[in-house]
Write a structure and sequence with these properties.
Layout: H1 36-47, H2 51-62, H3 69-94, H4 98-105, H5 110-140, H6 163-172, E1 179-181, E2 184-186, H7 189-194, H8 209-218, H9 233-250, H10 254-264, H11 267-280, H12 285-293, H13 303-317, H14 323-329, H15 337-370, H16 388-393, H17 399-432, H18 440-454, H19 463-473, H20 477-507, H21 513-540, E3 546-547, E4 550-551, H22 554-582, H23 599-614, H24 623-630
Antiparallel strand pairs: 1-2, 3-4
Helix pairs in contact: 1-10, 1-14, 1-15, 1-17, 2-13, 2-15, 3-13, 3-14, 3-15, 3-20, 3-21, 4-5, 5-9, 5-17, 5-19, 5-20, 5-22, 9-18, 10-17, 11-15, 11-17, 12-15, 13-20, 13-21, 14-17, 17-18, 19-22, 20-21, 20-22
Length: about 625
């Protein structure tokens, strides 16, 4: 389908812009996905990441279990789906990465693309550190006895309590005196006097071996963000491996990464199903799932829950970071974006809820073991998946195998998302500096090396505090602000009517009058108002960051605010730069799309006209035939 009449008078595109248009890809300079499923699985893998396992259940845990699902569902329909569709549409229509796209789509918002780029850099830094954790755990799992199964390691404390050892001690000493304390089975009073204990470790003091392994061995956690401590060499090597894997997969672009996701996007579901089935068979699982599902209505009065739900929708669906725009920019022009939006949005959110069942069945079991409420069972913040799940696999036959499968699942979950995050960074650079495209492998290497070096502080003893700080500030308010600006740019600057026209040009979808009126209200009023209210209320109700019982000092929160403000501030600065340096004071020109915005769609239109008029297959036009036709235009 061609453009509307308003575009019919545009001058023909020069031959140089389409001289290689039909060498297998619609856009050979940038490339396209090999097939539709490559893009769909890449989007699904990008959206379904580590956040579905270690962030979403953690937010439920923080916000009263099932009560969190209510604002989460509302935010999905009011924010997630509309913005997801918007980003896929503009990315596919223009075949541009965010920085270049907003220079031409809405020049007044050119800073919005830069904000997306900066947000991707910040998230990519700490996200790959979490992937490095999974690599460390995978290596540590290659033993017959898992290092977080028992309490006899040097890093364990007297409060370490292994339920496996406790049960074995009870079975072997049935009918005789025994206690379990100091992480060991004590069967005589002499040994008990040596440790100055006369009873089993009280329930309120017990700490699982999995939690101690994470905090005292893997992270060697310091007492606060003010004490970074030394580099943990195991984590540094793991981070290096993570960046080598990411860089290796992206050197050849979407052609190679699009094939990798066939495994990395589907394998995690197999492991999750197996672990959920096993988790539901454990005692106490029902209480954990009940805590997850039964809402605490009083929690809904807290604006923080609504803010957390909105941020999680942005984070989980990966909207407002620019990655979806980049992935869609490699699509064929007529790909069905509405279908892909619905599949990925609902598939991702169902995965989050499904993973929550698996997590909370284990939390219920751990609470049963420790005889404490579910809400008190874990205090490890972002390391929830590295405490609850590792504890579960120790109760499975052939626990080493299950541990390897589980951490391989986490590794593949993280890789999908990290591929898209880094591809977004790289594509932004290449679109801005197209002369670097022939040297893309070196650009990929350069980006990965720089991000690896910037991530070294995350491998220190205080690194996890930095991760939680970046996760809160760099992936919180900036995403909400970027999403708000996206909606304003589309509705009030570019024009919702043009958006509908572009959507129709892409796939022939034109919503009826009633549906269009509802969508228009969502884009123009409901979604922007919702984000604005949440932003304002969250700023008013701001309190210092707290994670796992640790309250961040004032100066650390100031650093967090600075991270958020830098990402947000580039939007108004971009507007000023465009008006002053590009438009030379012509403010109105800054609010009009440029001719470059329509370049890709015009190339496609010329291709389709050539195919129709000459009577050959417009999906496989011979280059010489097209050039002969184009020379007569």
């Amino acid at each position: 389908m061609g453009l509307d009449d308003s575009k019919a008078g545009r001058p023909p595109v020069p031959n140089s812009s389409v001289e290689h248009l039909f060498e297998g890809d619609e856009n050979p300079e940038r490339g396209n996905w090999t097939g539709k499923l490559d893009f769909l699985l890449s989007c699904l893998g990008y959206a379904v990441g580590l956040g579905n396992v270690w962030r979403f259940p953690y937010l439920c845990y923080q916000n009263g279990g099932g009560a969190f699902l209510i604002p989460y569902a509302i935010m999905l329909f009011c924010l997630g789906v509309p913005i997801f569709l918007l980003e896929l549409t503009i990315g596919q229509f223009s075949a541009m990465a965010p920085i270049t796209l907003y220079k031409h789509y809405a020049p007044a918002f050119k800073g919005l693309g830069v904000a997306m780029f900066l947000a991707s850099v910040a998230v990519g830094l700490y996200y790959n550190m979490i992937i490095a954790w999974t690599i460390y755990y995978t290596y540590s799992s290659m033993t017959s006895d898992l290092p977080w199964q028992y309490c006899h390691w040097d890093f364990n404390t007297p409060n370490c309590f292994s339920s496996t050892e406790y049960e074995r001690c009870a079975t072997e000493n049935n009918g005789t005196w025994w206690i379990y304390n100091y992480g060991r089975c004590i069967t005589n009073t002499t040994e008990a006097q040596l440790y100055q204990v006369n009873e089993t470790l009280p329930e309120h003091l017990r700490v699982s071996p999995a939690e101690e392994f994470l905090e005292r061995k893997v992270l060697n956690l310091s007492d606060g963000i003010g004490t970074l401590g030394g580099i943990q060499w195991g984590l540094l090597i793991s981070l290096l491996i993570a960046w080598v894997v990411v860089g290796g997969a992206l050197i050849k672009g979407v052609k190679s990464s699009g094939k990798v996701v066939y495994f990395t996007a589907l394998f995690p579901y197999v492991v999750l199903v197996i672990l959920l089935v096993r988790g539901c068979m454990l005692p106490g699982a029902y209480e954990g799932i009940q805590f997850y599902m039964v809402p605490d209505w009083s929690k809904l009065k807290d604006v923080k829950i609504w803010e957390a739900a909105a941020v999680q929708i942005f984070y989980s669906l990966s909207i407002a970071s620019g990655g979806l725009i980049t992935l869609a920019s490699y699509n064929k022009f007529h790909n069905n974006v509405v279908r892909d939006t619905l599949i990925v949005c609902f598939g991702n959110c169902c995965t989050s809820v499904f993973a929550g069942f698996a997590i909370f069945s284990v939390l219920g079991f751990m609470a049963h073991e420790l005889n404490v409420p579910v809400s008190e069972v874990v205090t490890s913040g972002s390391g929830l998946a590295f405490v609850a799940y590792p504890d579960l696999v120790t109760r499975l036959p052939v626990s080493t195998l299950w541990a390897l499968l589980f951490f391989l699942m986490l590794f593949t979950l993280g890789l999908d998302s990290q591929f898209a995050i880094v591809e977004n960074i790289i594509t932004c650079i290449l679109d801005e500096f197209p002369q670097l495209r022939p040297k893309k492998p070196w650009v990929v290497v350069g980006v990965c090396v720089v991000l690896f070096l910037l991530g070294i502080p995350l491998t220190t003893q205080g690194g996890r505090y930095i991760i939680d700080l970046m996760d809160t500030y760099a992936a919180g308010w900036p995403y909400l602000f970027i999403g708000l600006m996206e909606l304003i740019a589309m509705y009030w600057v570019y024009g919702v009517g043009k958006f509908y026209r572009d959507l129709e040009n892409i796939q022939g979808f034109s919503p009826g009058l009633r549906l269009r009126s509802h969508i228009t209200v969502v884009y123009g009023t409901l979604s922007p108002a919702l984000i604005s209210v949440i932003l304002v209320l969250s700023w008013i109700d701001w309190t210092p960051l707290e994670s796992g019982g640790y309250v961040y000092p004032f100066w650390a929160n100031v650093i967090g605010w600075c991270m958020a403000i830098i990402i947000i501030a580039v939007v108004p600065l971009g507007f000023l730069a465009d008006v002053i340096f590009v438009q030379k004071g012509n403010v109105l020109a800054s609010f009009r799309e440029t001719d470059e915005w329509y370049k890709h769609s015009e190339n496609i239109e010329m291709r389709e006209k050539a195919g129709t008029r000459q009577g050959f297959d417009n999906l496989a036009i011979d280059n010489n035939q097209f050039y002969e036709y184009n020379s007569r235009l």
